[in-house]
Specification:
Layout lengths: L1 E5 L7 H5 L1 E5 L11 E6 L3 H6 L1 H8 L4 E6 L4 H6 L5 E4 L14 H10 L5 E4 L8 H9 L4 E5 L10 E5 L7 H11 L22 H4 L15 E4 L11 H13 L4 E3 L4 H8 L4 E2 L6 H9 L3 E5 L2 H9 L3 E4 L6 H4 L6 E5 L19 H4 L3 H12 L1
Parallel strand pairs: 3-4, 3-6, 4-5, 6-7, 7-8, 9-10, 9-12, 10-11, 12-13, 13-14
Antiparallel strand pairs: 1-14, 2-8
Helix pairs in contact: 3-7, 9-10, 9-15, 11-12
Length: 375
């Protein structure tokens, strides 16, 4: 069983810098007059939130920042500081339920990218930036920066090559791409995740947790978010339900969040507030911000907690490396066997009978971790 407390800062970049090489094409190297810049991250909400520091770096020199997101990342992109406009496009080579490649789909993106001067393409280690670079070239984008270990030919102007055997926090990996393009965080920016302010009022959701002045004080409750986008990353529902009861017995008010209403209702039972299916993404951010701790798996709300400064008890399946995707820049307790046989498999369905990486985590361990983070 692996259990550890982590807190990361993007200012510690030694490993990242030593594992990267940037090649700039002399044909299109100009950096003056950085007009309308497109930043792309085409997968899920958590991935988009982790792109936040890179977006803020681009914002320092761009006249306008356009964010290209997939359908699952749109709400997160709309919350990022520094984003002026969001374009949504369903990429056939990124999404877990990919649409077919069609001429109409290509023409749609090419048309919507008209007027873009420059692009910074952000990808995970298992994704290629080159298909998108090709389409943006067709749209007339003059300067494109991305990570590519494959030869990009004329598709990229700034080719950032990294040693993918070195695990680096995803937020830092993406910030490095922006830096390779010539964008840097402004003075005083700590490089952590962030969301736009103000967040929505959430009194209608947390009225039962009122404090001074009739609003929920910071730390008035614990949020439990039982759902994830992949079964391999999910802690069993009955463990979540038992944890909610034990947290209540330990003196905590508990709020359960998520989009799967049957799941949240089961987990909340008769002892917690069930907000399943009730909040927008921005309202969820506000609910998590007022919490003392979030209990969640490796899923978007864990990164949302990092963006609003809330500690996380992270039920983390090692199908992807925790070094890359654990909650970034906030206190966190990592629970789960990080050496389990599924390690590094990127599986969406657990490849090991019994789901041992998370099934061995007990509700008592979660309650103890919540105590540690709230003391």
């Amino acid at each position: 069983m692996s259990r550890g407390r982590q807190e990361r800062s993007s200012r510690d970049r030694t490993a990242r810098g030593s594992a990267s090489v940037t090649t700039v094409s002399s044909a299109r190297v100009g950096t003056a007059g950085r007009g309308r810049v497109l930043v792309a991250r085409l997968d899920d909400a958590g991935d988009v939130l982790l792109a936040g520091p890179a977006v803020r770096a681009v914002r320092t020199r761009a006249r306008e920042v356009v964010f290209l997101a997939g359908p699952n990342g749109r709400a997160a992109a709309e919350l990022l500081p520094g984003v002026d406009r969001v374009i949504v496009w369903h990429a056939p080579w990124i999404d877990h339920t990919p649409p077919p490649v069609t001429a109409a789909g290509v023409e749609e993106l090419v048309g919507r990218a008209d007027g873009i001067d420059e692009a910074v393409l952000l990808t995970s280690f298992h994704q290629s930036a080159l298909p998108l670079a090709l389409l943006l070239r067709l749209a007339g984008v003059k300067r494109i920066t991305a990570i590519s270990n494959d030869y990009p030919g004329s598709l990229l102007d700034v080719r950032h090559v990294v040693d993918e055997s070195v695990d680096v926090p995803e937020a830092e990996r993406m910030l490095a791409v922006a830096e390779a393009a010539g964008f840097a965080l402004p003075e005083g920016d700590d490089g952590k995740l962030a969301v736009q302010r103000p967040l929505p009022d959430i009194g209608k959701f947390t009225g039962h947790c009122v404090g001074v002045g009739g609003v929920a004080d910071k730390g008035a409750y614990v949020v439990v978010h039982p759902g994830t986008s992949a079964p391999a990353r999910t802690w069993p529902a009955d463990r979540h339900r038992q944890t909610v009861r034990e947290l209540a017995d330990d003196g905590h008010q508990v709020v359960v969040t998520g989009t799967e209403r049957n799941l949240t209702a089961y987990v909340a039972g008769d002892v917690a507030a069930d907000l399943g299916g009730m909040t927008t993404f921005a309202e969820l951010a506000a609910v998590i911000e007022r919490a003392g701790v979030l209990v969640a798996g490796n899923t978007g709300p864990a990164h949302l907690a990092a963006a609003v400064g809330t500690p996380v008890v992270s039920l983390f399946a090692p199908v992807v490396p925790a070094v890359r995707w654990a909650p970034y820049g906030v206190p966190a307790v990592l629970l789960g066997d990080q050496q389990a046989p599924c390690r590094g498999s990127r599986a969406r369905l657990c490849p090991v009978p019994g789901h041992p990486c998370l099934s061995q985590v007990t509700s008592e361990q979660v309650v103890k971790a919540v105590r540690e983070l709230t003391q």
